Recover the amino acids of this structure.
């Protein structure tokens, strides 16, 4: 844990007191989003202190020319960057002609911030003494509408406390924004049009290279003591900015307010010629409804989300706050309504990592969306990969594969590979396996075969072809081997026969063939189409199966475990506990070669395989592997603690499970990795959900039935969660002495509780 | 082979006819240097076509801020860049007020270029028809003085052929130069002072960050039909340029000439305040002597070099030209007089690779300088590493080593590591071995123990400590292993137990201990000093030896060969001959992962070990390893063919040896690697020398005696070379029917010829 300034609370993220050093971390933690856009919790008014500005539009990106020290053949030309978008939250505030700026004012009292997760808004209040000795009280509330995804709203109140004061609001739009993350200091946006009158403003700009057209828009109303004023603003234009100025002499104790409605219309959703008219319609709707009505809808929309996705924890407010924060951020990042979007590792909370899609989506996020949303949301995530199949095939061709083999990118925005470290881009190929696994997982959970039959089988075939071609025959081993890979544990590069990779490769081939045969038998038309499109032959299928059947798995007789990769035991096997604490995190203290030749594991690798394929192994096997590998695991990936929490729970090691749970659920709130100011770890938040539902709840799907074997940390009184299983909504409430199932929707359902079948009605 | 426009000639590199496409390649091939400075063969007059400008000063570099895609702990902050220096060769030429420019003139006839290696000058002549229809004949000669290392001289003659013409010469100095190779488009030079009068000009500038002060200087004289004119020039200044203009109306058939003396004085060799006065002294000397006298001295100086280092080949002009080109370039690059300098991979012929010192120096260059120069030259190269020992220890500390262990840098200018690819910088650690090997090699050849006793032992101890700490104990193998390395074959990264690395590590420890004991016994005072400085203990020595004695070497019983690294045989063992030719060179056609998992070898790796330690193995062993590894070797490193040529010769495979010889000796002349325009491969040129002397000549030093087992390619009538062995200069002449030894200096010498001792007097 690196920080603990966040006040524990059931439903809100709260900060009390103003600390310059916490500003950037809070900008990440208090981020808001509505799936279609999102923004860091930057202040509306001027702030001249250290700050990381960020406003993001889902699907709008910039292909930044690759910059590397040493070029390798096959590197992509571009890295798709998450793009800082025009700023529409800005409201310059002047108090007696002095700019209100928390960095430069004399004194700040009663500063507090709240991210109200229940209702979906961000609030802030403080009393500031300016250099001119005016004391003002400020209250701000802001949200991004779930109902109207292009719209956000801000309510900004100022009350002079010690004197009458002239207050000026200058709401503005600014398209002169830059990225912190840029390879060549390129300009990413070009402003093409500005329009501003007494209460509305518009800026049109487009991204360079990708030519996404964006209209940023705003409209403001001002109020005195909640009574709307008819004041017309004074419009101003700068090169890449439009603003409107509203001034008022405000009596001591009176409150001058501005309601700003703003947002983006983009060419993703509108004809390019209609962006401004679309913006005007939205503004009209917003102005008609007004801030309070819009906020009311926002609360209702979030209420609906929480109805289904809330997890309650009794008796442990930090654990409760943690899980809600995770669920809230996931819902802010991705709502599943747009199949062009995906779940970026930082969501709308920062620029880092670029791209929007990693294997995290398939390996960690699908289960959450599958169980807490309608199944079409998870299906959209699968469809996203189907839509990128052509590019994945191209990507494989660039690396020398042929005949329709696909290698899905490590990082992507539009299907093209973005990443450029050879040991990752070219070698962390296990990602292909997760994409096939998600198809299996989706079908297992939903029983919806239509995706496989319509789209998924093509994906499975292309992935199987990749593994087939990527495996080579080793004469000395008389087995197929996969050489030169990076497994999920990125603290090993270019290793041979990573067990996880080999295992999932074998499985991918077998699963593809199983489905080829099923579709051939049961869906002749689909089979004909796919057969024609892929040119699959029985010889190829036989050859593939030969590879799968003869795959090599490194194994230690001495330890009775599969080896993470060949030669793993040649390392100096010093356990993490015996390592000098000053050396950790090793990724901040050791040169890369030292990390690579150490036995230390960044995140579940062999154990990731035992997580995915738990049903292939006995619990004793898992236990052996957990006992062998966990002591070497440094958990320096945000994706590590959740898998270990689930497995520790399964093995009945509740203290360990609980400690991993806290680490995953409060990773950002407590800033374990000392980097939250760069943004939140969005994708690992779905792992937090899994660590409760699959870990403590022990939920599994076996033979078309939900199975549970609930456990509960001693720190908790009870916890509950809901799952949407095949049109049944089942609520599960676990306390120390019993587990309650309530069916909230759907016909009676048989579930398995610790090996016994129970009928829930 | 990629080009064949160079005319075969015994003593010169010649090009006839002007081809725009060859300009940049010729700029590399016709480069001149004098060990202390050097330059590409750029034209003196304006040339607006594609050209790669380059003028370099030994020891003057710029630490360019590292730029990588993904930072790893331990990367150096800077990459030492070879620095393009102010241009002093420039002479703008106007003919009837039209700028002479071979890129834009109407017609070029009789263009020829000559790099006269015997005499050490670069010449060029042509007839150009300008746009204004004036036809001029031009003759240029240029050289960098071996005698006066800060001085260069140019003689430029113009003869109007079809009409009287006004000819203007504008000799200039230009410090507004840039690097092609720059990470951040930094400016590398700052100009601080300019001075110009009617015939002299000076520009002072300094490098940014490193603050090397350089005074570029020039003086010009003009002649009509070889008679000096008293014309005073008209001086001109621009921001970073000074020039002097001389005009003359020249009758048809008359020749107007300019002699330009120019060069650099630098703060490396002078007090900063005296650079201009030093320049003036040089100019005075040059003007007094005049061009012809200076050229005469140049011929004599080169004659002296050739006296000792020439290799003659009868009956094969291309082979003769190749070896002389290699010997000439080596002597242009490094003369051994300045122990601060070293042999950059591109010498003074380009910017690529940066740095000046690679393991190439110790592994490939030392033997050439040792045998063709006084032994102090090789000793200076060893001393260079001793001077960098402190930085090598610091470098090892950055990577987690301690107690005075040293890791010499992969690439350096001043002792600090410059390189930034983790798989090279951190893992290509075998370089440390070559540095120890050079000490052994120097002592074996010269019998001079003073270097070891005074300096070398400290280096050996620090290197042995590194290997001791870098080796770890493998329980399953019950041996010491070296994990995560890149061997000499850079087409394998992060492998375990690279045989070459393990072997040289073991040897380094044993050789260090052997010398620790020798110095302890024979040089008590030195031992005391070193003992105190290094804090060496007997326990440490015992521990080291334990590691050396128990080092693991991967071995294949089936093939009877050591394995390049563990798991090598798991690859798809398709030989190079069975590989589709379109796929080669693989480094231009394959993505990096594909190269890594292939069995293809960039350059001698296991065979490099057999080259260094030939005396440890039987010829049958070498044969087995050569037969096993060569068929997988693609020779895509310039350092590959020479070692294979030597070994093929030893194994009596003369056709193969000859083909490797041609490839190494004419690598640049015939542009095998399609990249000569970036500069020549200087360090591998020393390998060419070895391939004749050690390969065909079979020269070895055994038991303080020279051994020869000469062979001769069937294409040659005879060949001869000289070696300076312990103050004997021995000339060896080999023809098909006999070998002649002539002692040119020193007392009678016993040499071994094919196993028989011969007394040479």
């Amino acid at each position: 844990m690196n920080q603990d300034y966040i006040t524990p609370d059931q439903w809100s993220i709260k900060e009390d007191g103003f600390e310059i050093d916490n500003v950037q971390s809070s900008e990440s933690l208090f981020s808001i989003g509505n799936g279609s856009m999102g923004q860091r919790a930057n202040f509306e008014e001027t702030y001249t202190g250290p700050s990381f500005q960020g406003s993001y539009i889902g699907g709008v990106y910039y292909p930044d020319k690759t910059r590397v020290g040493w070029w390798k053949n096959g590197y992509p030309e571009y890295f798709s960057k998450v793009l800082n978008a025009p700023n529409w939250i800005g409201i310059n505030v002047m108090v007696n002609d002095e700019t209100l700026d928390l960095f430069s004012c004399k004194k700040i009292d009663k500063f507090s911030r709240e991210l109200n997760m229940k209702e979906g808004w961000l609030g802030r209040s403080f009393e500031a003494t300016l250099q001119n000795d005016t004391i003002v009280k400020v209250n701000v509330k802001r949200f991004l509408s779930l109902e109207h995804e292009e719209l956000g709203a801000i309510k900004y109140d100022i009350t002079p406390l010690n004197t009458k004061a002239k207050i000026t609001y200058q709401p503005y739009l600014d398209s002169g924004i830059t990225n912190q993350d840029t390879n060549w200091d390129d300009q990413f946006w070009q402003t093409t049009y500005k329009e501003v009158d007494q209460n509305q403003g518009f800026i049109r700009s487009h991204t360079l290279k990708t030519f996404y057209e964006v209209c940023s828009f705003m409209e403001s109303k001002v109020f005195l003591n909640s009574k709307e004023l008819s004041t017309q603003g004074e419009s101003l234009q700068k090169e890449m900015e439009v603003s409107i100025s509203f001034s008022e002499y405000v009596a001591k104790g009176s409150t001058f307010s501005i309601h700003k409605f703003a947002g983006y219309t983009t060419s993703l959703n509108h004809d390019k010629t209609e962006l401004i008219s679309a913006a005007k319609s939205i503004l009209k709707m917003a102005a008609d409804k007004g801030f309070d009505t819009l906020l009311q809808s926002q609360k209702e929309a979030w209420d609906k989300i929480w109805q289904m996705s809330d997890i309650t924890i009794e008796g442990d407010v930090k654990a409760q706050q943690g899980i809600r924060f995770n669920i809230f951020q996931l819902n802010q990042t991705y709502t599943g309504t747009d199949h062009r979007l995906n779940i970026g590792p930082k969501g709308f909370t920062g620029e880092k990592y670029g791209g929007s899609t990693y294997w995290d989506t398939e390996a960690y996020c699908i289960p959450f969306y599958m169980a807490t949303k309608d199944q079409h949301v998870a299906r959209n995530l699968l469809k996203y990969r189907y839509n990128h199949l052509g590019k994945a095939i191209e990507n494989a061709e660039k690396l020398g594969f042929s005949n329709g083999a696909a290698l899905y990118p490590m990082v992507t925005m539009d299907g093209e590979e973005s990443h450029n470290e050879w040991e990752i881009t070219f070698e962390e190929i296990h990602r292909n396996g997760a994409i096939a696994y998600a198809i299996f997982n989706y079908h297992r959970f939903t029983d919806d075969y239509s995706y496989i039959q319509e789209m998924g089988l093509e994906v499975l075939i292309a992935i199987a072809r990749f593994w087939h071609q990527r495996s080579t025959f080793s004469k000395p081993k008389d087995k197929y081997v996969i050489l030169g890979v990076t497994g999920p544990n990125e603290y090993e590069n270019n290793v041979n026969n990573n067990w996880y990779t080999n295992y999932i490769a074998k499985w991918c081939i077998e699963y593809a063939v199983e489905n080829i045969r099923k579709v051939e038998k049961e869906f002749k038309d689909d089979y004909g189409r796919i057969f024609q499109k892929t040119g699959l032959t029985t010889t190829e299928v036989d050859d593939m199966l030969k590879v799968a059947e003869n795959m090599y798995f490194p194994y230690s007789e001495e330890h009775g475990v599969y080896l993470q990769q060949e030669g793993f035991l040649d390392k100096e096997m010093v356990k993490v506990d015996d390592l000098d604490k000053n050396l950790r995190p090793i990724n901040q203290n050791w040169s890369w070669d030292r990390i690579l030749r150490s036995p230390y594991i960044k995140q579940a690798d062999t154990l990731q395989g035992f997580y995915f394929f738990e049903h292939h192994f006995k619990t004793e096997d898992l236990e052996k592997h957990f006992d062998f590998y966990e002591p070497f695991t440094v958990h320096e990936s945000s994706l590590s603690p959740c898998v270990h929490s689930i497995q520790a729970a399964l093995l009945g090691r509740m203290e360990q499970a609980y400690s991993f749970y806290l680490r995953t659920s409060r990773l950002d709130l407590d800033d374990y990795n000392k980097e939250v100011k760069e943004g939140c770890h969005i994708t690992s938040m779905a792992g937090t959900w899994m660590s409760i539902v699959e870990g403590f709840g022990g939920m599994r799907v076996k033979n078309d039935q939900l199975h549970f074997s609930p456990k509960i940390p001693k720190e908790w009184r009870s916890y509950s969660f809901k799952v949407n299983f095949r049109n049944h909504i089942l609520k599960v409430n676990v306390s120390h002495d019993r587990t309650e199932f309530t069916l909230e929707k759907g016909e009676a359902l048989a579930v398995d509780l610790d090996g016994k079948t129970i009928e829930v009605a």
Observations:
- Chain B touches chain A through 48 residues (CB under 8 Å).
- The longest helix of chain B spans residues 275-309.
